[in-house]
Amino acid sequence: MEFRDLLEPKYKEIISGYLKNQNEQNLYQGQKLSRKLIEHNISPEEIISLHKSIMVDSEATQEKLIDSFDVLLEVMMGYGLAYREHQSLRTEQM
Amino acid sequence: MEFRDLLEPKYKEIISGYLKNQNEQNLYQGQKLSRKLIEHNISPEEIISLHKSIMVDSEATQEKLIDSFDVLLEVMMGYGLAYREHQSLRTEQM
Which of A44, A49, A89 sits opposite B79 (nearest CB)? Predict the structure, then answer.
């Protein structure tokens, strides 16, 4: 099975887990997923698009929608970090 | 005035414009802002955090929250592009 096929159920699981319990454990899972996304060259906009479609499908309330940004934040931190690493590597090479 | 101080009102203006009219023009403004964010080393997670806080403050409805992801998508496309450019530069240098 391709990573992209596994991504949607995995991300869905992390979001729904977080929206139920709002514990750090789910956010940590988001962090771990983030590393894999970058390894598999999944772009950050693909995650926004996936996040939107999961929230539409789940008919999330206003409150849940707001809370769901915490998961997105965690995932985007991975991209931010990767991006800063690339930048500093580039600066070193110049 | 610092870019960071201008960022919040600018991003807020783009979101509220898009939520009112949902036209391409506002999305294009999001694209342009995206380039500036990257130039000023604003991390993608800072944008998620700002987006959340704007949506909380505006007491957006479920529908508006869902629509607002389109603006976030547009902005993140800029990060995705910058990230892919860095990656290909790195591959060339290896």
Answer: A44
Tens of pLDDT, residue by residue over B28-77, are 999 999 999 999 999 999 999 999 999 999 999 999 999 999 999 999 99
- In this prediction the pTM is 0.92
Q: Go through chain B and tell me how many residues it has.
A: 94
How far is C-alpha B76 from the geometric centre of its chain's CA atoms?
6
Length of chain A: 94
Count of alpha carbons within 13 angstroms of residue A28, beta-carbon side: 3
C-alpha triplet A66, B54, B60: angle, nearest 5°: 60
- Distance between alpha carbon A67 and the CA centroid of its chain, in Å? 14
Give the distance between the most distant pair of CA atoms in chain B: 49
- Tokens 């607002």, residue? B68
Distance between B17 CA and the closest CA of chain A, angstroms: 20
Residue A2: strand, helix, or coil: coil
Q: What is the DSSP letter of B89?
A: H
